[in-house]
Amino acid sequence: MLTKKRKTLSTIDIAVAKSTNPATGENIATYPYLDAPGISDVVKSAVQGFTVWRNTTPTKRVAVFRRLAQFLRRDTDNLAGVITAEMGKPVTQARAEVNKCADMLDWYAENGPAMLGDQSTTIGPEAYISYLPTGTVLAIMPWNFPLWQILRGAVPIMLGGNGYLLKPATNVVGCALKLEALWEEAGLPEGAFAVLNCDRDQIPGIIHHPAITGVALTGGTLAGQSVAAEAGRALKKVILELGGSDPFIVLADADLDSAAQAAATGRMTNAGQVCISAKRIIVERAVYAEFTAKLTRHVESFKIGDPRDPDTFIGPMAKEEALLEVDNQVRRAVEEGAELLTGGHRLPRPGSFYAPTVLAGVTESMAVFQEEVFGPVATVILAEDTEDALAKANNSEFGLSAAIWTKDNTKARQMARQIDAGGVFINGPSVSDPRIPIGGVKKSGFGRELSYLGVHEFTNIQAVWDQTHQPR
Prior knowledge:
The protein has 472 residues and is of the alpha/beta class. It is built from 15 helices and 18 strands.
């Protein structure tokens, strides 16, 4: 078992990934980066694991999924505790993340095998399409959902018979190693899911390794550009789920109470460190003042504090540098003319706590309108009418998801077709769910995770045409 070979050091004497509790600043553990021979050993094990895994049937694969789901539910409290300690997520939200992962595994266990069956063509039974594994996929994953983010990509890819080599974020290596051990306990061949704790400078060489057949990254735009360029040079497929500055459109006829609560909850969950979230709240003039007041009241009602407390809704930000970046964005917005309705400052307590913030009067000329704000900050933008709301929604280099709130569902569906986003949600918050794909357009990336599309992304879509009895 690979995890048994990794040691946690009490002192830093070589390059390491460091896990620090953002609520206290306490050092939890350090994990030494693998050197070149260590990386080679892990990749070799991954190849061996893939060779075994690819030769199992989809039915046997999903049996492993079902067992993993059982173990996640069994270990919910322990796993949630590690999430909370490593990246500060309130424990109630951390438990929900673990259970969401288990539910997804069960859904794929129930529906997954049918996604890999041979597909007929109009030619007849002699011609069909098969979905075959391609190899081992290198996955470079972030820290904000240290289990869900990994599994929502891994499960569809592994259902297709592929191996999964995980490069986790440096502050949540403990979560990744817990997951690796549970996969093995569930009966996955050793190496078919493997954690690769390495320095970012080592990633290009791994991408070019002949055993790696594809790359999946969730992260920032610059990281996506770098990885995509490297994968392009290696002629390997890549899917990217990058940043987002999702519009949340509130029209004059919307249910303002429901919309305000959804905007506040969606924006402040996980201390605002969510890719698909209500980041640019665009409100029609007729209800702008009323909605903004309701939103602010909801934001101010959330309990902030110790993430281990089940009643805490907003905990610390995961990293000190992330807090400083958000604080800088808020300060610049106020300097540029935005109105600070609540928050806008670091909380006077140990840890990386930032006060939940509402900025009103945000305009398109402000940096905070164009940038992704990855923290507990809601920006409210005035729209004159529906057309203006759509124009402001699309005035972004990002295109991950969007939400529309109106009682006119026909109008909302027409608007959805005009929004540049990978997902549009009507009278509900942006969410990720295995039943629908997730992914973006523009600088939010390309490719899709989840649903059957996520299963097929890294398969060899093979056409087979038996012409034995065709007339010559």
